[in-house]
Write a structure and sequence with these properties.
TIM Barrel, CBS-domain, 20 strands, about 15% strand, globular
């Protein structure tokens, strides 16, 4: 049995646990604090990822695409493009994300003679909820879902668009943009350059966020994006292509990271002498952490079985409760000046806080973000009209079918017999928080508040000062809010 070192995280009353712990098993005790405001807390990470908030979007096909990567990087997080995406496509996505504005969202655009039906198909793709009608590169109107209610789907947009436009000049200060939008009672406005050409779109909330978040940018001031690689086939060639494309981090990813194939893949990537951090996983033990670091990883990804789409624990009995896994692996990495990412098991902002308290430098979020406008999937509605998107595990039959599309029918059929993941699940959009930025607001508010309770001005101090207590199932239930009276 691996020896545990509890010297960093302090447990309430000094009693270390006799069993492994999930996020639901633990809580943080408030400390005496001189951090008086949540805005005084610095949430930037120090693991080389460049994230200014400790969130990484998991490399799941149903979660991490170009819209997701652009949006979260603008708020300081980093998305990992999945390994199933061909390298040329990843290169195009990386280039596209790095050309996006640090302040404005990318507008959905259509021409005046295009139809309401086309607009309705595109509106769910972005949380700002508007199509900018463009003629010769210049905005001439805006169409929202409200403009399309009760209108024939073949109606041309120039007949329903709002043509009395407020536009904002490129380079406007976010606070000035907010004031102009608020003063004109506008929720959003197109942003134009000196020639009147469209360069983006900005909402009032987006202007506010631009004053509260610092984007995750590379040395050239462009948005950051990561890319994943599997451990099969020619790993070095794929890694080289992703490095040439401009990926800011390489993530070597497999469900069982503590294996010889992973160690060989890591050594092959390290031989390329990449100038970006190399992330590898997944593991759940100090031994696995040390082996991945020895093979060349800069950051170790921690978690086997806690993800919402993962059936590994129920299928195999293999895995480990996530809080204890992060705690042990982070201690092992910290002793060597390295870092870990906590991957999986996040259902609430509290889980992110506890992963950071356990020592993670970043927390990966997957399925929670699948139910947002920015995830790649199409928007569906259930029998009651409630909107949702489909999500699926990366070891599921559905993901394996995509990953093995170039193999023979026989080999694909053999592999399809074995799966460890849910092939389809409904991830409902929260009516109050339908966009990924809404969820980032929620998570960041929780983490900032947790830091003030702990008396921590940085994430490093949160790990050092956190006092962890153990709780029963009823203790966890007591902390959950009620949306109706009892």
């Amino acid at each position: 049995m691996v020896a545990r070192d509890w010297r960093v995280v302090r447990f309430l009353n000094g009693h270390p646990p006799e069993h492994d712990l999930t996020y639901g098993d633990v809580f943080m005790v408030p400390n005496r604090s001189d951090v008086s405001s949540r805005t005084d807390v610095d949430l930037s990470t120090v693991d080389g990822s460049g994230a200014t908030i400790p969130i990484v979007v998991a490399n799941m096909t149903a979660v991490a695409g170009r819209r997701m990567a652009e949006t979260v990087a603008r708020r300081g997080a980093v998305a990992v493009i999945p390994q199933d995406i061909p390298a040329p496509v990843v290169a195009e996505v990386v280039s596209w994300v790095k050309s996006r504005s640090l302040v404005y969202d990318t507008a959905i655009t259509l021409a005046p003679d295009e139809t309401v039906g086309e607009a309705l198909n595109l509106l769910p793709k972005r949380a700002h909820g508007a199509v900018v009608v463009v003629s010769n590169g210049r905005p001439v109107g805006v169409v929202t879902e409200a403009d399309c209610v009760g209108v024939d789907r073949y109606t041309q947009l120039h007949r329903v668009m709002s043509s009395e436009l407020l536009t904002l000049p490129d380079g406007i200060d976010p606070r000035a943009a907010f004031d102009r939008l608020h003063g004109g009672r506008h929720r959003l406005a197109p942003v134009v350059d000196g020639n009147g050409n469209l360069v983006g779109i900005l909402t009032r909330t987006g202007a506010l966020r631009a004053t509260l978040y610092a984007p995750a940018v590379d040395a050239a001031g462009r948005l950051r994006i990561a890319a994943a690689i599997g451990i099969n086939a020619d790993v070095a060639t794929k890694a080289s292509a992703l490095l040439d494309a401009g990926a800011d981090l390489l993530v070597l990813d497999t469900a069982h990271g503590h294996q010889e194939k992973m160690l060989g893949a890591l050594k092959a990537v390290r031989a390329l002498d990449p100038e970006v951090p190399v992330v590898a996983g997944n593991v759940v033990s100090a031994a696995g952490t040390h082996d991945l670091l020895d093979a060349g990883a800069d950051i170790v990804k921690v978690g086997v079985g806690p993800g919402a789409m993962c059936t590994t624990r129920m299928m195999t009995g293999v895995g480990r409760p996530q809080f204890s896994a992060v705690l042990e692996c982070s201690d092992a990495a910290r002793a060597r000046g390295a870092h870990v990412w906590a991957d999986g098991g996040v259902r609430w902002p509290r889980d992110v806080c506890l992963a950071l308290a356990a020592g993670a430098s970043n927390v990966m979020v997957g399925s929670w973000f699948a139910g947002t406008h920015e995830s790649p999937g199409d928007l569906y509605r259930d029998e009651s009209g409630r909107p949702y998107k489909e999500s699926f595990g990366m070891a599921s039959a559905r993901a394996v079918a995509t990953r093995t599309a170039d193999e023979t029918a026989f080999d694909r059929a053999r592999k399809a017999l074995f799966e460890e993941g849910i092939s389809t699940a409904r991830m409902y959009l929260d009516a109050e928080r339908p966009g990924v930025e809404d969820l980032l607001d929620l998570i960041v508010a929780g983490v900032r508040s947790a830091c003030t309770y702990a008396g921590a001005a940085t994430l490093g101090e949160l790990h050092e000062r956190a006092v962890i207590g153990l709780q029963s199932e009823q203790g966890y239930a007591e902390g959950r809010p009620l949306d109706t009276s009892w």
